[in-house]
Amino acid sequence: QIRATPTRFSLGFLLSRPEASFGPGSRSFGHPGAGGSIGWADPDAEIGFGDVMNRTGPHVWVDPGPAP
What we know:
single chain, 68 residues, five-stranded antiparallel sheet
């Protein structure tokens, strides 16, 4: 069964929602990527972060990590 995930987009990035925030600021934004990569920023806190993986996988929203 496919379940829709509510999202908010602006200029190619996801905007924070009360249910899924990229930071404490209301203007925070970001975007997850395949394999667990993610980038986000909070302009109010003047901080940003990016993390990329050296492998790829089918997981976008939640990456379970390496197989045991």
